[in-house]
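Supplementary notes for students who missed Thursday's class. We covered one full example, reproduced here. Read the sequence, then the structure, then the short commentary at the end.
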Amino acid sequence: MVKMLRKTKKVIAAVLTAGMLMGAMSTPVAAATEGWKKDATGWWYQNANGSYPKNKWEKINGAWYYFDARGYMLSNSWVPDKSGKWYYVGSTGAMKANDWVKGKAGEWYYMGADGAMKVNDWAQDKDESWYYFGNDGVMKTDSFIKDKSGKQYYLDSEGVMETDSWVQDKFGKKYYMGNDGSMIIDSDGNTIIGSITCDIDDSWTILSGASDGAMYLIPSANEGALFLALVSETKAEVSEDDLVAAKDALLQQYKEYDLKVVEDTTVNTPCGTGLSFTLDVSDYMNDKMEGHAAYIKQVLFMDGNELYLFQIICVDDDFATLEPQFDAIISNISK
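Structure (token representation):
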């Protein structure tokens, strides 16, 4: 009887145990809720399995976020990677891309399309202006820079690359930055003043020049070409008499070479009134121009103790189209 009782207890215990196990198996377990969580320390992101990212970038809803060693999201912070690139996460924690970041000292940085800070590289803003960033990532201002191409550019006080304009260095020398922003140089890499000419096959020949100063070169719409060169003479004092004397000397020179003066007038410059001459030199240069028309336009003006002569030569019949560009450059000469 005792044995039967013990056996009955074992059976009951076995049944109870099995029932408990079955009951436990049939009771649903609450899954972790995926999404952003916040406590007194900050924000973190919980995955569906209850884990959360730490010491890594995580892409969430199309944006990149960085989580520290404890799993908290960083915000308003710089984040370096193993390759030495720097990234920035803003106030929402999202990584900035194609966007500006202002440093604590007021300096500016630019984050590229991949989010990496621009270093020794260019960036174009939404207004299509170009900016350059040095080896520390800071935007350059009021400075000449040489980029990877070896060309020189100038960034103004706002950091914008200058184009089609004159700029002046700290020594007072003036240079012309072309329509692509690069400083105009000769075939030897020197900025030049003086005179050059052009054959129809587009091979440029420097007739005279110096390695300081500036020249602006404008290709024409056809086979001809237009160029602008600057020459200057410095004296202790420059007066209106010097301007008139220079004009008379030029006119005498034109007469000696039998050049046709088609215009003799005055022109306004930011430095005051200038004297302007337009010459038809087609006959004189006929052996080189192969029947193409050629014109020279010159402007004399004074600036301080210097007497300047701007000269333009246009080969072919495009003078009427290109002359306004020359006049526009003259009207925007920086003092």
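Commentary. The chain is about 20% helix and 35% strand. The radius of gyration is 37 Å. If anything here is unclear, bring it to office hours.
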